[in-house]
Write a structure and sequence with these properties.
The protein is an alpha/beta fold. 37% of the residues lie in helices and 16% in strands.
Length: 212
């Protein structure tokens, strides 16, 4: 198989518009500072990717300057839920390569090896997930575009601890085998941030950034 395309689903780093659950605990400025760290982690991971890399965005396009991702070809995310956005990401990825990996920006432990592993699993399965510890998934890879609609329904329980299990159940019902990559932790709230700081993945926002 040829090199896989990597498509990153991400909001532009705008104050008050990112990491809202985290902002409830540390303030909007602190949440933005953490989000910028997460974008930097994604930027480092994708820098070694050998296939095409694309950015599917939402928000102020000028806000990408200085993130390490501003050089990537990008287009706006479509209307609809996360299922619609994942479907659009795969459509763009399959226009560039015969395999595609779609990721978000929530995992402080994400590294290039995790992305490469997920793509490699497609040698044995038509689709593979990168599970998150909270029951979601940080990434999904696919080599069969006919499988995408099975896991890209807006009606699925997105942003809940049931989304990965529900996606797998739909694949099982459709008779589609699926693989699994490394399980990583998301950073969605203050407790997640504390764990990521303890693990050395993130640094605490400054006192000024953490003010409400």
């Amino acid at each position: 198989m040829g090199e896989a395309a990597l498509v990153i689903l991400a909001r532009a780093p705008e104050l008050g518009r990112v990491k809202t659950r985290l902002a409830a605990g540390i303030g909007v400025a602190g949440a933005l500072a953490v989000y910028r760290q997460l974008l930097a982690i994604v930027a480092r991971a994708q820098a070694g990717w050998r296939g095409p890399v694309r950015l599917l965005t939402h928000g102020d396009d000028s806000a990408w300057t200085g993130t390490g991702l501003e050089h990537l070809p990008r287009r706006p995310q479509p209307e609809g839920g996360l299922g619609s956005r994942i479907a659009a990401a795969f459509a763009w990825g399959f226009a560039e390569a015969d395999r595609a990996v779609v990721i978000g920006t929530d995992c402080p432990g994400l590294r290039l090896d995790h992305l490469a592993e997920l793509a490699d699993i497609l040698q044995d399965f038509p689709i593979a997930f990168g599970p998150a510890q909270d029951g979601g998934y940080w990434g999904v890879a696919c080599r069969d575009r006919a499988v995408v609609p099975v896991i890209a329904e807006d009606a699925l329980p997105w942003s809940t601890e049931r989304i990965l299990a529900a996606s797998r159940q739909r694949l099982d019902a459709a008779g589609v085998a699926h693989g699994q990559g490394a399980t990583l932790a998301d950073c969605d709230d203050a407790a997640d941030l504390a764990a990521a700081i303890a693990a050395g993945f993130l640094t605490a926002p400054s006192h000024h950034e953490s003010a409400p």
